[in-house]
Specification:
This protein is mainly alpha-helical. The protein has helices spanning 9-18, 34-41, 53-61, 78-87, 100-105, 107-124, 159-170, and strands at 134-140, 151-157.
Length: 184
């Protein structure tokens, strides 16, 4: 609606830049080094010892289910996994580089395996290390950033970690008030 009221061509092209749809002018006088942005937004760690998805699944094969009558997730069904995957409309690629549309297009082949993987994650109270990683990018908060505080870091998560979180939040045993958002 704002674009319809603008008649100046320069102002028209500024709108998509302000919204982050188009990049800002490459001749801008203020530039920040990638390392500066990273240091300013640091907080995510990475371990070279993390397990691959295959190694994670192998490690679960010999582990017993945790004993006790405490909290547990109800096993998810194939239909719930399909609905959880289809819930997401994002086109962003996570750290794994796999776009959601590839997973959605492959659902008929993968959904039984995904269902088993999500249920193993719930029963073992764990998930593959690769799902815990993210790619952090800095978005401009203002039109012409002049300081590191003018950027907002966002994390692009692995698509499967988003689906796991969605399934966990839909579990009948899950209460949104019992865990902090950061614990999911």
């Amino acid at each position: 609606a704002r674009l319809t009221s603008i008649t100046d061509p320069i102002k028209i092209w500024e709108e998509p830049r302000d919204l982050g749809i188009l990049p800002f002018d490459a001749n801008s006088s203020v530039r920040f080094d990638r390392d500066e942005l990273n240091k300013h937004s640091a907080g995510v760690s990475y371990s070279v010892d993390e397990l691959s998805v295959v190694d994670f699944l192998a490690s679960l094969a010999n582990e017993p289910t945790l004993p006790g009558n405490g909290f547990s997730f109800t096993p998810v069904t194939v239909g719930e996994v399909v609905r959880a995957v289809r819930h997401f409309i994002t086109g962003a690629r996570g750290v794994d580089g796999v776009p959601a549309f590839v997973i959605k297009a492959s659902l008929s082949f993968f959904f039984p395996l995904l269902t088993k993987l999500f249920n193993l994650s719930f029963s073992s109270c764990s998930s593959p290390d690769a799902w815990k990683r993210s790619s952090v990018i800095a978005l401009d908060k203002v039109k012409n950033p002049s300081s590191l505080d003018d950027f907002r870091p966002i994390a692009l998560l692995c698509f499967f970690s988003k689906v796991l979180k969605r399934l966990a939040s839909l579990s009948p045993n899950f209460s949104p008030n019992c865990l902090a958002e950061t614990q999911l």
